[in-house]
Write a structure and sequence with these properties.
With about 130 residues, this protein is an alpha/beta fold. The protein has five helices and five strands; from the N terminus they run αββαβαβαβα. The longest helix is centred in the N-terminal third of the chain and has 21 residues. The protein is globular and about 40 Å long.
Amino acid sequence: MCGGNAKETYLEILCFKQFYKHFVFAEDEEGNRNKRLEKYFKVSAVVDVIGFQAKYYADSVSMSGKEKDLKEAVEGAARSYPGITTLYFYISREFSPSSKKDMIEPSYKINVEKVAQNLNIKIEWRVRQHLQGK
């Protein structure tokens, strides 16, 4: 049985592989994957600065209780990487539905996105369903 640290490490590795596959490989017309690293190293001007965070939360943890942690991750990314435009969050859990009848998204998710928006950062969420079977 894996301890909490091992699960976090495995999630980080899986998320890095997903992130790497998404941004470093491309499919050609026949659907084959081609490495295109040379395009990333020869570019002299960068339009988008993209980062990612991997977060492991046990099923017993309330996602609404992790709002502060997620906001701090966004703020930390903005401090550490000035000019970051997009932040991918790979999270080991699905979001719980909103407790308010007139809202679909949970308020803690909306609040994290507002913090990011104020810092001119777009959030891309990758939850459990994005990680399974890939």
